[in-house]
Specification:
Elements lengths: L19 H9 L6 H17 L4 H6 L5 E4 L6 H12 L3 E5 L15 H21 L1 H16 L6 E21 L2 E17 L2 H19 L7 E7 L21 H8 L4 E7 H16 L2 H15 L1 E5 L18 H12 L2 E4 L2 E4 L4 E6 L11 H5 L3 E4 L5 H9 L5 H10 L4 E4 L1 H17 L6 H10 L1 H6 L7 E4 L1 H7 L1 H5 L9
Length: about 500
């Protein structure tokens, strides 16, 4: 599997990266069809591993080959990009182009997509580092839990003079023949000494070990315990600017949080809950956040993937009747991000020169050539995804790892109900989904969700009370449950 680069000096080997063919095979496990789109993203991903093996000067010159996916909704555009990111544990974010507005108008600034990607990357790296230090954090957590469950014995305090210490006191001053005479009194200092008898200490240690063993055996998970956790009160501050609050490049919460003193808060929870709380605290102490942020930024710059959905919604030309903030103006603002710029985030400056952008849209009304020429040039690869047919629906229902039929069978199994869907039932469901898409609106594979929900609605509702814990869904059952859809011409009345 392709690994995310740790640093520019630690380059990935092509031998350790997935080949384009292997990437396509992995995508085939979850997505039916769309071979051309899979090939395009597989080559784009492989090129990242290739770029890392180039010399520094050449590596900086190689730009990512951004992709536009053209196809109706529900054909797998988003799923391809999401599965691709999971293959390599790359920072991935999906955004809708239609939610951004031109600079100067109220709305989200286009640079916020990179800030969101940086946040996601930091959380990803932090989670990985937490797993690395988890074993050490568990050890520290166990000691803290034992301290809360069995506080150390209080030492007896005795006040006694310390032989090695003296205190000098000026008792009086007398003038004799003009000379000052200093009378000095020496007395031992009174100090406090805490002592715990060896017998009491040994008894405490034996009891502590017994508690430790009970903790490890899971015999105290439901026992209540009062713990102290850090409670940092941070004022909530919002600053509005023309681009919105996300335009700030400093983290006010972190700034104020470091200035305010830490406070301890008492909480009474079970041992199991206390363990989770304390593990999180101990792990945060063990993690070097500077290294986390540095690695997260590098992942964004070298492996980040931004899926820009609904790009066709901003593909119109400038309106002559007045300002049009949702089209060409947004394209002009997105252009610098796609072609490469530096974005200020609360973690530092992030370059977008090598972030991979995958855009998608149905392009029913507009077409890719309606985008401004500069933006078109930044998406050199264009793939058209095909609409799904009846055979594709049959495969989607049964073949992928997360196939719908497998999901519903597993869900009803939790109620003790064994459901079997026959081959002819699957044929009938696929045929009906294709028919509704043709007659009403083509929403691709999402039609199968609405069909399956309506088909199993009564069964899902009554599953807990059914005495018969085994049921077979055949073609006749499908026709009976969905007969109204077949008869009625206005299919949208029954299926969205």
């Amino acid at each position: 599997m392709l690994e995310t680069p740790k640093s520019s000096s630690n380059k990935n080997s092509l031998a350790g990266a997935l080949t384009p063919r292997q990437i396509v095979e992995e995508l085939d496990k979850y997505i039916i069809g769309q071979a051309e789109a899979k090939r395009s993203v597989a080559v784009a991903l492989r090129n990242r591993a290739r770029r890392l093996l180039l010399d520094d000067d050449m590596r900086d010159e190689v730009a990512p080959k951004n992709i536009i996916m053209i196809g109706t909704t529900g054909v797998g555009k988003t799923e391809i990009a999401r599965r691709l990111a999971r293959l390599v544990d790359a920072p991935f974010i999906k955004v809708e182009a239609s939610k951004y507005t031109e600079v100067g108008y109220v709305g989200r600034d286009v640079e916020s997509m990179i800030r969101d990607l940086a946040d996601l990357s930091v959380n990803m790296v932090k989670s990985e580092q937490t797993e690395i230090v988890k074993e050490k954090a568990l050890e520290l957590t166990e000691e803290r839990l034992l301290d809360f469950l069995l506080p150390p014995p209080r030492a007896q305090t005795k006040r006694q003079p310390a032989e090695e210490d003296v205190e000098i006191i000026d008792e009086n001053k007398e003038e004799t023949d003009g000379d000052d005479v200093l009378s000095i009194k020496v007395q031992p200092k009174i100090t406090e000494r805490s002592e715990v008898s060896e017998q009491e200490q040994a008894r405490y240690l034996r009891t502590r070990e017994k508690f430790r063993q009970r903790l490890r055996d899971g015999k105290m998970e439901d026992s209540p315990v009062e713990i102290s956790v850090s409670n940092r009160t941070v004022p909530f501050i919002e600053i509005f600017s023309p681009g919105g609050i996300e335009e700030m490049d400093i983290n006010l919460k972190d700034m104020f949080g470091s200035m305010l003193p830490k406070q301890e808060k008492k909480r009474r929870v079970t041992v199991a809950e206390a363990r989770q709380i304390l593990i999180q605290e101990e792990a945060e102490k063990l993690i070097d956040m500077d290294k986390v942020v540095a690695e997260a930024i590098e992942r964004v710059e070298n492996s980040g993937i931004v899926f820009l959905d609904e790009i066709d919604k901003i593909a119109g030309r400038e309106s002559k009747a007045g300002p049009d903030v949702s089209r060409e103006g947004v394209q002009r603002d997105i252009l610098p991000i796609v072609e490469g710029c530096t974005v200020a985030t609360k973690y530092g400056m992030v370059r977008t020169d090598h972030v991979l952008f995958i855009a998608s849209g149905a392009f029913h009304v507009s077409k890719p050539s309606d985008l401004i020429p500069e933006l078109q040039g930044r998406f050199p690869i264009r793939v058209e995804l095909k609409s799904l047919n009846q055979e594709d629906f049959k495969r989607i229902l049964t073949e992928p790892k997360n196939a719908l039929v497998k999901q519903y069978v597993a869900m009803l199994q939790t109620e003790g109900l064994k459901m079997h869907i026959t081959e002819d039932a699957i044929d009938e469901i696929a045929a009906l989904a294709f028919q509704v898409n043709e007659a009403v609106e083509d929403i691709g594979a999402r039609r199968l969700y609405t069909i399956m929900e309506r088909l199993l609605d009564e069964l899902s509702f009554n599953a807990p009370e059914l005495e018969e814990k085994s049921i077979t869904i055949d073609a006749e059952y499908v026709k009976t449950q969905l007969s109204e859809i077949v008869k009625d011409q206005d299919l949208s009345q029954y299926i969205l």
